[in-house]
Amino acid sequence: MRKIKVVVLMGGKSPEHEVSILSGTNVVKSLKPSKYEVLPVVISKDGSRWRLTSRKSLLFLSDPLALKGTAKEIVLSQERSLAGAEALSKKDIDLVFIAMHGPFGEDGTIQGMLSLTGIKYTGSGVLASAIGMDKAMFRKVMRAEGIPVPKLTTKFPCFVKPDNQGSSVGASIARNKKELSKAIKLARKYSSRVLIEEYLKGMEVTCAVLGNENPKALPVIEIVPLKGEFFDYESKYTESGAQEIVPARISKALTKKVQDIAIQVYKAIGCRGFGRVDFILKNNKYPVVLEINTIPGLTPMSLVPKAANAGGFSYSALIDKIISLATKD
Hints:
Distance between the termini: 22 Å
Strand content: 15-25%
């Protein structure tokens, strides 16, 4: 039986570079050698170098998160330079598994590049990826669909975030003018556009969705941040950063409502493959959509694998499913 030739693309020009490498490494580990021929590719932090490496090289990596905030690249014991997506098209591959997060990976950029070469890839296409990453545009689409999202505000407390980042990068709460100035300065490190929204109190939950034309929602996860006041970057990517409870401790009726809205959001922007919709339950009762992640994390700490496990999918089965959905026209 012919093996499926899969390139796993990770890293890239994004503040989530190291998280992406964690996701990509876990995807590579999960792909069975008997079924897949795997070509791991790590894109450098400045986006200029595409390094083809091996499964073995990734398995012996030290913690990539230790390099966050530095210009240092991970050290690969085996690597060979590639001339970008054009080189991939010459390798007779069946599919690219995109394990990239944030700008240039999750925003339609890499999707457009791969579409031009005619290579199939996992996850959403160019338009859905771009809308999902652009928070201001995403909110416009949600309002047009009648889906509740946070309101823009000039009142305190407020929530300040860059317009085009994931993993809560550059996001913070401001309770007065001094904190607002500091929060805007932080957000502008990552984007020229900044959103200032109402700060909503309530339970944080998230709902993963799998599928193409007829997507299905996975069990809802309740998030209890332990490090900060909300599910920020540190809470997401440290072992003791948050308590994640699945299924969420909410009623069946509210669970179904969250799942139905998650599917509505997913369909509204035209997602494919998989995604994750984040919510605040305002006053612990009313679902308000915060954002959609069109390439959610696939690290050991990530939410989609936990939801999939609760829904009867092992990590390996989840990755197989994502690949299967990507090969369907």
